[in-house]
Amino acid sequence: MSEDIQRVEPRVLKGFRDLLPSDLIARNGVVRVIQGIFEKYGFVPLETPAVEHIETLFGSGGDEANKEIWRLETPDGEAAGLRFDQTVGLARALAQYPDQLKAPFRRYAMGNVWRADKPGPGRYRQFMQLDIDAAGSANVAVDAEIIAIMCEALSALGLREYVVYVNNRELIDAVLEDCGIAEPSRQKHVLRVIDKLAKVGLDNIRREMGPGRIDDSGDPIPGVGLAPEVIDRILNLISVTGATRAEIIEQLAQLVSTEHAQAALADLRTVAAALDAMGIHDDHARIQPSLTRGLDYYTSIVYEAMLPQAPQFGSVMGGGRYNRLVERFMDRSIPGTGVGVGIDRLLAALAHLGLVEERKTVVQVLVVTMGKTPLTESLRLASELREAGISTEVYIGAKMNLKSQLSHADHYGIPVAVIVGEDEIANGVVSIKDLMAGKQARLEIADHDAYRKAGTASQVTVPRASLVAEVRRLLA
Amino acid sequence: MSEDIQRVEPRVLKGFRDLLPSDLIARNGVVRVIQGIFEKYGFVPLETPAVEHIETLFGSGGDEANKEIWRLETPDGEAAGLRFDQTVGLARALAQYPDQLKAPFRRYAMGNVWRADKPGPGRYRQFMQLDIDAAGSANVAVDAEIIAIMCEALSALGLREYVVYVNNRELIDAVLEDCGIAEPSRQKHVLRVIDKLAKVGLDNIRREMGPGRIDDSGDPIPGVGLAPEVIDRILNLISVTGATRAEIIEQLAQLVSTEHAQAALADLRTVAAALDAMGIHDDHARIQPSLTRGLDYYTSIVYEAMLPQAPQFGSVMGGGRYNRLVERFMDRSIPGTGVGVGIDRLLAALAHLGLVEERKTVVQVLVVTMGKTPLTESLRLASELREAGISTEVYIGAKMNLKSQLSHADHYGIPVAVIVGEDEIANGVVSIKDLMAGKQARLEIADHDAYRKAGTASQVTVPRASLVAEVRRLLA
Predict the structure, then answer these.
(1) Distance of CA A122 to CAs A159, A294, B278, Å?
(2) What is the Cα A27 distance to its own chain's centre?
(3) pTM
(4) How confident is the model at residue B452 (pLDDT cuts 50, 70, 90)?
(5) Does B5 touch chain A (CB under 8 A)?
(6) Of these four, A353, B56, B193, B428, which has the most CB atoms within 10 Å of its CB?
(7) What is the DSSP string of A170-187?
(8) Which residues 429-468 of B are in CB contact (within 8 Å) with A?
(9) What is the ipTM of this complex?
């Protein structure tokens, strides 16, 4: 039968990737920490399908997202698509199950999403998102709770330096209104320009708010066409800095006067007071008046997390408040606010900072069977270790010699080997090899004999009854 | 802007479903238990993409699976499809990364798969699979380890009665060979007929092994065309029963004689000895000579788990040995054996047996803000509870009256409410309400006044410093 098999080249699609055990062990660890914090703050899991009706997906993320939808057809000929985010599914579910998912409702989602855009370094067509969204609360104290979650997650992952930048983009809208710029489309254009501040600098965004500019490639970038005095007011506003949240808010208060602006400031004050109440240090959550997070979708408070020790990874979490979550699906709006964790970026940054351990396996002990020892002896011994909660693999491979077995442990980085040979069985003992110590010792030794001895020195023989205790001691 | 929104009916595609918090809380609990056991036996995670090249998917699961592949096209015009299982991705990855995923390699995968077949009750077009596969070991002691994992998982989930049925289908092939039936296609036909034993009964499979039969709807079912004496030998073989694995093996040994049959029996003996070594009771792993698991794909040992207290759910885990895992992707074969957990069926069975708790939330405490108390007080209090690891939600909704807040706790089944009012703050105390006890008391009381008092009786007021201790006491 083998002859008729058509050989297929083993490869993944462009923009896709496999997560090998070392990738996934690291990711699972980070995901578990974050999930625990989501749950501690009262968020519950909800999972919507990967495939949705095309009209459910279409339009909800704006034109940019529509282009990225990966379309397909159901066996019944209906137009469908792969989800490009998890928020659209939440919005649909809130409208579909109003009796079950009563507001206020806090959910988390941890799943894959698909985008049919151009892949590039770090840009994949399938990637995981960890999202929390709180629906049904207009009070921005909820936004402060989400910021607290971001801080707690970053701290729990071992980071000491992290900043969540917070802003209320309505403040900018209010100043524009005060200057007579009331059209939402122009206001949003200004927010998108400000979003580019870090990338293109103050002078360039000044030009983009005015007549426009020519970019490095010679292409013209049309401007918003604001008057110079309006631009000055906006730039003054977004340039405000200060040592504490309170200080920044008081400085912003000097620059605005209208009722709308006062309301926007009041929301920032609510966020700041809530952060204080939850003990979030001023260094970890800062008001950044230039933060807009470009997307049209956000309506007021926005927030994003940066790692000052690894700025090249950009924002590792980001989100904000959107007050029109379900209106595409039902006759009313439900206010919402939420954050998405860029798990791939976050993992890359943590790895860069040495905060994730690279492990190819979860196995703690390899049971090595020697000579004519029956495999059942090894299985029996493995059962004892597993009963003690120790992850144990019995080597059962094509070649059962000692070298193959120890090289397997070495390849996967299994730290301890328990060796079961005929002598051991006859004497009621087991040999336990500390493979990490042996490796370390060998690395430090140049001389061949000493090298071999180091291997032996890291091995002990103990009574069978001491097996679990001795393995635990080595693993500790 | 609201006016131009085109309203979309909130609904999922046919054959899809949402997993609401209660579904997912239950599923996550079961998945976590099983994942822990997979890891304890030395299996590591591997995740391959949901979308693969069509030629990668095509052919690997047989014609039946090909029909079920949900096809799509990449933005670059390549033919692709959604994966219908997780084994095809494993096979591809083993061929693609031979240096990293060196044999023996044990991996687990827990992800969604998609099938474009007809949906029905309990049959979805997207569903989750939990799979383990051990690649690179021809020794069937590995199959015994997988059976031990199945047993340990079922036991850890609270089941006392469960059986993993085990067989070596090669034994049937060997007897057929001995009778001169050597064509693999006829042998496989016989195995598929035997697979229907439980469904159609002994008389019907006897007819299907012979001339064929007419089914209930009047349709003819073609037979294998075996001679009556051959059928008798097969039926004798598959009817063997006994109290222990050893007894059944010895009875089977009476019925076969050829070298091939002896080799098949030797494998069963290896499995039985390994199960004994791992302490798996005869009641929990039984040899069932009629087990074939229809699929052409398996080559020798097969196994499946049944719950005698809930037989209507069928097999909740199933798998076996397939020795041609990667040959579609590379120039050699790697033997493999593995099991898939039908997580939906398993959950349904556990729920039926009262072994999963129905919970709509993970939240343990709702902080209720009374009257003019600032929300910051509630946030401060929630931080204290969360610091103690208690999942806490601060009620922040559209209506902040007591009734709305307690009805929220009631709707989601949050067990404890902590009430922060002006009196409490003034006196340095908090009121803690045991909502479960109150509910229970009210259920038992007919009289209106007593009903109201029961609500009060379940409430205590304690010094603020005793908050965490008192909440812990109630939750215990």
Answers:
(1) 22, 21, 45
(2) 9
(3) 0.93
(4) low
(5) yes
(6) B56
(7) HHHHHHHHHTT---HHHH
(8) none
(9) 0.92
